[in-house]
C-alpha cells in the first residue's frame, strides 16, 4: 500500500506566504500542500499567486527545492452570474503547480444551474488534469453530503468529486451511513480536523468556528475514526485546522502545522 498523502492546507497557516508555507510543510514532514489561488473572503490577506509572476516563480522554486508537491488548489465559487470560461487562467496556474484536485463551493440557490456549471467546470478542468470537488458547507447552497452527491452525480462527469471536510460533515449533520454509500471514485481527498461542542444554532457562529476555531484530531468530539472508515482506504488528507487563538498567543505556523500532523498520525495509528 502506498503511503498516505498528508497535505498542509492554506487555512491552517493562512498568515504564511506560499513559499513560507512550502518550507513549513517540508520541515514538519508533510508530503503535500494546498494552495489558495483565490481568497475565500474579501477580508482575508491574500497572496496573489495567479497575478504575481515573481511569487509564483519563488513558490515553484521552493517546491522543487523541498520535494513538496501540491495536492489541491482553491477556491472557486459557482455563483448565479459565474462564467466558467473565466476560470481558465486559475486552472492553468493550478496545473503549473502540479495540483490534481480543485476545491469548489456552490453559491447558487438554483440547483439545476449549479449542477450545469459544475459540469462545465469539470469539462474545462479536464485538460489540465484537475478534478473539481464540490465541498458542502452548511451556509452555502451545497449544504450537506446528500445535496453535494446529488449535484455531482447529476453533473455526470468522470473527474467530478465531493469534498468531505470533517467540520462541515459534523455541522451539516450529514450521516456516516450515507457517506459509506458514496462511490469511491467521487472521493479522491478529504479535509481533516476535529470539532468541539454541540452544533450551534446560529449559522454565523458555525461559520466563525469553521474559519477560526477548529481542533486538532483527537481533541474534539467528532467521530473521526468512523468518518475515515467510511472513506476510501488511504485517501489523501488535507489538514485544514485554523486555530486563530494559538496564532494570537504566538504559536508559530511551523508549530501549528507540526501539531496538526502529529495529532493526525496518532489518530491514523489507532485505526
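Sequence proposed for the structure above (271 residues):
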Amino acid at each position: 500500500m502506498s503511503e498516505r498523502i498528508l497535505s498542509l492546507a492554506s487555512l491552517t497557516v493562512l498568515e504564511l506566504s506560499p513559499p513560507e508555507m512550502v518550507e513549513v510543510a517540508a520541515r514538519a514532514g508533510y508530503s503535500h500542500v494546498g494552495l489558495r489561488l483565490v481568497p475565500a473572503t474579501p477580508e482575508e490577506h491574500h497572496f496573489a499567486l495567479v497575478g504575481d509572476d515573481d511569487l509564483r516563480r519563488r513558490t515553484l522554486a521552493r517546491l522543487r527545492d523541498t520535494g513538496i508537491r501540491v495536492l489541491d488548489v482553491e477556491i472557486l465559487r459557482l455563483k448565479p452570474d459565474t462564467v466558467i470560461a473565466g476560470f481558465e487562467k486559475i486552472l492553468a496556474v493550478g496545473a503549473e503547480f502540479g495540483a490534481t484536485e480543485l476545491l469548489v463551493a456552490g453559491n447558487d440557490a438554483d440547483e439545476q444551474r449549479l449542477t450545469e456549471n459544475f459540469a462545465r467546470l469539470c469539462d474545462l478542468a479536464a485538460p489540465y488534469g484537475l478534478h473539481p470537488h464540490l465541498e458542502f458547507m452548511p451556509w452555502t447552497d451545497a449544504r450537506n453530503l446528500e445535496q453535494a452527491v446529488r449535484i455531482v452525480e447529476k453533473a455526470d462527469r468522470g473527474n467530478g468529486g465531493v469534498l468531505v471536510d470533517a467540520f462541515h460533515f459534523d455541522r451539516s449533520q450529514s450521516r456516516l451511513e450515507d457517506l459509506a454509500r458514496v462511490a469511491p471514485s467521487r472521493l479522491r481527498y478529504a479535509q481533516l480536523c476535529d470539532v468541539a461542542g454541540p452544533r450551534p444554532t446560529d449559522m454565523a457562529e458555525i461559520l466563525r468556528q469553521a474559519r477560526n476555531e477548529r481542533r486538532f484530531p483527537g481533541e474534539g468530539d467528532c467521530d473521526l475514526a468512523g468518518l475515515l472508515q467510511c472513506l476510501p482506504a488511504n485517501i489523501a488528507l488535507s489538514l485544514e485546522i485554523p486555530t486563530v487563538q494559538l496564532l494570537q498567543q504566538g504559536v508559530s505556523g511551523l508549530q501549528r502545522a507540526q501539531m496538526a500532523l502529529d495529532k493526525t498520525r496518532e489518530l491514523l495509528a489507532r485505526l
